[in-house]
Design goal:
The structure is a single chain. By secondary structure, the chain is of the alpha/beta class. It has three domains: 4-174, NAD(P)-binding Rossmann-like Domain (Rossmann fold); 181-428, N-(1-d-carboxylethyl)-l-norvaline Dehydrogenase, domain 2; 442-471, Single alpha-helices involved in coiled-coils or other helix-helix interfaces (Up-down Bundle), CATH 1.20.5. It is 54% helix and 9% strand. The chain contains 20 helices and eleven strands. The chain has helices at 11-22, 34-44, 56-61, 77-86, 104-116, 129-135, 145-149, 152-158, 176-206, 210-220, 228-238, 261-272, 277-290, 292-299, 315-344, 350-356, 368-377, 388-411, 416-428, 435-446; strands at 4-7, 27-30, 50-52, 68-71, 95-98, 120-127, 138-142, 161-162, 165-166, 459-461, 469-471. The termini are far apart. The structure holds NADPH dihydro-nicotinamide-adenine-dinucleotide phosphate and ribulose-5-phosphate.
Length: 473
């Protein structure tokens, strides 16, 4: 009998199944299109103790009880479809693990529905792409604690290991695991956008060629920016197109697609009232990139400076701006998770989250150690920017950060994530901002009232009458 099963043998499911089998766990595999299961078995069955199955019935019958079934199919309706097909074949206490990028709202609903039917449901984030799934992903499981206990050994064994710790930890009940994965992906969007803005400035602001920029990213990857995304940026820039002989980057269409996790993160931040500017700008930047035809037309019509001619001495300032903006994106993402924890009554441990993102996942980076250390030293930290390490890091980067944004604005190079991150930083460090004026305007046109700095209560000025102030509470 197999100890666990995976249904959904595309990139993620196939590699996760191989990872589990390579770790000595007998596993049953299934895919809606049975020919893919056959292909999988033909290619990989020698790697471990696999049982290939054609139907869901066979799949379920191949598993020890209580059954543990990982569903790794396209997020959304397909997950509901697979669960609906599995349900009549399962017994009380069997465990379904949705390991795809499901929306946490769906996960909360599915957990409630399946619990009512006597089944157990784990919604687990898995990050690392194809290579991570095979060799060790970062895993973010949510759901009933006792159900997690029954998959913990397998999950912690197959996860990436950093400094002897698995990049897998129980996140919390119902949708907590998928929530944390959603924010992970939001941060991934921000990180990628910031890198793209740095590339744009190097390429079009300073005018460096692709090999020179590749060397810069290699160099940055040896310092405090060291991360998977910086490393693969250099690799992508190094690739030459076999057909044209040009750098591949120059023949890739400049439209960024998106499957939804970044958008959900931004939407959720709006609901929670968290100022998630970096990630949201990154989502909008992908939307703007999608308007390729409009941009082509506008490029010949709308006035503005032509980029070029920035000094090469700006390279290190761009590195500093990238680092500071990245700190802001993470600070905002962690603030959002703290707000969600309060809303949903989840006991999210911020230092632990940074720890399980140190390996296996797309946003793995050297500076996640610093985040863990900051939360360990200051468990009640309200904002990462307030941690002494990050206060100092941003303080020493900020002259360069401002200089880069000024240069970009003068050059007409759009840097929405760099500049919105700095705007957040400047807004956050102001004891008194300009929202008093907004309150005055709201009270003027809608009698929405305002509070005063010098006494308690709500007040309204009779703007259109005698101009006197009245207390309204
Ligand atoms: N690709 C990546 O880098 C990452 C992906 N993820 C997430 O992991 C999950 C799997 O991703 P990935 O491996 O890329 O695969 P895809 O998201 O491309 O999904 C393809 C798989 O879903 C199955 N499927 C689609 N519709 C249905 C349906 N209605 N009923 C049953 N099965 C269905 C397909 O079966 P069939 O062969 O029959 O079409 C196939 O096995 C997704 O939620 C994704 O967002 C998470 C981290 C990284
Ligand atoms: O989850 C992932 C990595 O952690 C996926 O790679 C992610 O789905 C990619 O998202 P998008 O297609 O929206 O860029």
């Amino acid at each position: 009998m197999s100890q666990i099963g995976v249904t959904g043998l595309a990139v993620m499911g196939a590699n996760l199944a191989r990872n589990i089998a390579r770790n000595g766990v007998p596993i049953a595999v299934h895919n809606r299109t049975a020919s893919k299961t056959k292909d999988f078995m033909d290619e990989f069955s020698g790697e471990g103790d696999f049982t290939g199955t054609e139907t869901l019935q066979e799949f379920v019958e191949a598993l020890e009880r209580p059954r543990r079934i990982i569903v790794m199919v396209k997020a959304g309706a397909p997950v509901d479809g697979v669960i609906a097909d599995l349900e009549p074949l399962l017994d009380k206490d069997d465990i379904i693990i949705d390991a795809g990028n499901s929306h946490y709202v769906d996960t909360r609903r599915r957990e409630e529905e399946l619990t009512a039917k006597g089944l157990r449901f784990i919604g687990s984030g898995v990050s690392g792409g194809e290579e991570g799934a095979l060799n060790g992903p970062s895993i973010m499981p949510g759901g009933p604690r006792e159900a997690y206990g029954e998959v913990e050994e397998i999950f912690t064994t197959i996860a990436a290991q950093v400094d002897g710790s698995p990049c897998c930890a129980y996140i919390g009940p119902d949708g907590a695991g998928h929530y944390v994965k959603m924010v992970h992906n939001g941060i991934e969007y921000a990180d990628m956008q910031l890198i793209a803005e740095a590339y744009d400035l190097l390429r079009h602001g300073i005018g460096l060629d692709v090999p020179a920029i590749k060397a810069i990213f290699d160099d940055w990857n040896r310092g405090d920016l060291e991360s998977f995304l910086i490393e693969i940026t250099a690799t992508v820039l190094d690739k030459v197109d076999a057909e044209t002989g040009k750098p591949l980057i120059d023949v890739i269409v400049d439209q960024a697609e998106q499957k939804g996790t970044g958008r959900w993160t931004a939407q959720d931040a709006l609901e929670l009232g968290v100022p998630l500017t970096g990630i949201t700008e990154a989502v909008f930047a992908r939307s703007l990139s999608a308007l390729r035809d409009q941009r082509r037309d506008a490029s010949g019509v709308l006035a503005g400076p032509k980029p070029g001619g920035l000094p090469e001495s700006l390279v290190d300032d761009i590195r500093a701006a990238l680092y500071a903006s990245k700190v802001v994106a993470y600070a905002q993402g962690f603030e959002q998770m703290a707000a969600a924890a309060k809303t949903y009554n989840w006991d999210l441990k911020m230092g632990e989250l940074a720890k399980i993102w140190r390996g296996g996942c797309i946003i793995r980076a050297r500076f996640l150690n610093r985040i863990t250390e900051s939360y360990d030293a200051h468990p009640d930290l309200v904002n990462l920017l307030m941690a002494p390490y990050f206060q100092d890091a941003v303080a020493s980067a900020q002259d360069a950060w401002r200089k880069v944004i000024v240069s970009a604005v003068e050059q007409g190079v759009a840097v929405p994530a760099f500049s919105s991150s700095l705007a957040y930083y400047d807004g956050y460090r102001r004891e008194r901002g300009p929202a008093n004026l907004i309150q005055g305007q709201r009270d003027f046109f809608g009698a929405h009232t305002y509070r005063r700095v010098d006494k308690d209560g709500s007040f309204h000025t009779r703007w259109s009458q005698d101009g006197t102030e009245v207390r309204t509470d």
